[in-house]
């Protein structure tokens, strides 16, 4: 399910209808979706909840895992399949306690020592490593880690690693040989001229 992991919030859209873009990306073969509405988003909590309900329903109908970023209350309210937490977000142990018991847990890591800590938390199901390459989609992104560190993280990790940050058709093929089980991406889809071709590129890279 981590092969082609589409991440998106209202702040990432460039004029598209969110529901239509999600349907289009799922049609193209996206294997998981993360609702990450933050940063430059101007939605109220109520608007975020209503949008989330629509997106959740699309994922339910198409059997695509629906994961909420950095908001365990929203994840619970939307009956999400998972919740994803960053190092700067709420403490992972607190999120694990608050999340509905069956929920999948994802954690972002940037260093080997963060991976080693994550190895000791049995509830964590996967790690997001990134940004691997330079990204324009995250205001507070740390410096890109590059492929060698990602490979080392993958070798150190108990759970699968999904790569995120600056993934394009030119570099997506470098991820699997460096230990990632999949790619997570925003602009590769939101700024794509051909969503179907972009997603197929990812699926081919991880086939
Ligand atoms: N976490 C690390 S990089 C990133 C996030 C959420 C943004 C990824 O966006 P893009 O457009 O795929 O580089
Ligand atoms: Mg986060």
From TrEMBL:
- Biological process, per Gene Ontology: thiamine biosynthetic process; thiamine diphosphate biosynthetic process
* One Pfam family cited in the UniProt record for this chain: TMP-TENI
User: What is the official name of this protein in its record?
Assistant: Thiamine-phosphate synthase
Q: Which family does it belong to?
A: Belongs to the thiamine-phosphate synthase family.
Q: Which GO terms describe its molecular function?
A: magnesium ion binding; thiamine-phosphate diphosphorylase activity
Q: Where does the record place the Thiamine phosphate synthase/TenI domain?
A: 5-187
Question: What's in the GO CC field?
Answer: cytoplasm
- Binding locations of 4-amino-2-methyl-5-(diphosphooxymethyl)pyrimidine: 34-38, 69, 108, 138
Question: Which organism does this record belong to?
Answer: Companilactobacillus versmoldensis DSM 14857 = KCTC 3814
- What InterPro entries does this protein's entry cite? Aldolase_TIM, ThiamineP_synth_sf, ThiamineP_synth_TenI, TMP_synthase
Reactions accelerated catalytically: 4-methyl-5-(2-phosphooxyethyl)-thiazole + 4-amino-2-methyl-5-(diphosphooxymethyl)pyrimidine + H(+) = thiamine phosphate + diphosphate; 2-[(2R,5Z)-2-carboxy-4-methylthiazol-5(2H)-ylidene]ethyl phosphate + 4-amino-2-methyl-5-(diphosphooxymethyl)pyrimidine + 2 H(+) = thiamine phosphate + CO2 + diphosphate; 2-(2-carboxy-4-methylthiazol-5-yl)ethyl phosphate + 4-amino-2-methyl-5-(diphosphooxymethyl)pyrimidine + 2 H(+) = thiamine phosphate + CO2 + diphosphate
Q: In which pathway does it act?
A: Cofactor biosynthesis; thiamine diphosphate biosynthesis; thiamine phosphate from 4-amino-2-methyl-5-diphosphomethylpyrimidine and 4-methyl-5-(2-phosphoethyl)-thiazole: step 1/1
* Function recorded in the entry: Condenses 4-methyl-5-(beta-hydroxyethyl)thiazole monophosphate (THZ-P) and 2-methyl-4-amino-5-hydroxymethyl pyrimidine pyrophosphate (HMP-PP) to form thiamine monophosphate (TMP).
Q: Where does Mg(2+) bind?
A: 70, 89
EC number from the UniProt entry: 2.5.1.3
- Cofactor(s) essential for the protein: Mg(2+)
Q: Which amino acid positions bind 2-[(2R,5Z)-2-carboxy-4-methylthiazol-5(2H)-ylidene]ethyl phosphate, per UniProt?
A: 135-137, 166, 186-187
Give UniProt keywords alphabetically.
Magnesium, Metal-binding, Thiamine biosynthesis, Transferase
Which EC class heads this enzyme's classification?
A: transferase
Q: How is the cofactor bound?
A: Binds 1 Mg(2+) ion per subunit.
Q: What Gene3D superfamilies does the annotation carry?
A: Aldolase class I
């Amino acid at each position: 399910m981590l092969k082609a992991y589409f991440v998106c919030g209202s702040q990432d859209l460039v004029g598209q209808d969110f529901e239509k873009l999600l349907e289009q990306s799922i049609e193209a073969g996206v294997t998981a979706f993360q609702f990450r509405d933050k940063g430059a988003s101007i939605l109220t909590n109520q608007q975020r909840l209503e949008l989330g309900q629509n997106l959740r329903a699309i994922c339910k109908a198409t059997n695509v895992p629906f994961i909420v970023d950095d908001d365990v209350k929203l994840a619970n309210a939307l009956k999400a399949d998972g919740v994803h937490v960053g190092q700067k977000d709420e403490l992972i142990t607190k999120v694990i306690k608050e999340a509905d018991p069956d929920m999948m847990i994802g954690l972002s890591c940037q260093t080997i020592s963060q991976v080693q800590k994550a190895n000791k938390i049995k509830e964590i199901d996967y790690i997001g490593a990134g940004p691997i390459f330079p990204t324009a989609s995250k205001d507070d992104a740390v410096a890109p880690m590059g492929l060698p560190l990602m490979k080392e993280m993958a070798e150190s990790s108990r759970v699968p690693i999904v790569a995120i940050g600056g993934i394009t058709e030119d570099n997506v093929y470098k991820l699997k040989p460096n230990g990632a089980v999949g790619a997570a991406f925003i602009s590769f889809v939101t700024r794509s001229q051909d969503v179907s071709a972009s997603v197929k590129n990812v699926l081919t890279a991880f086939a």
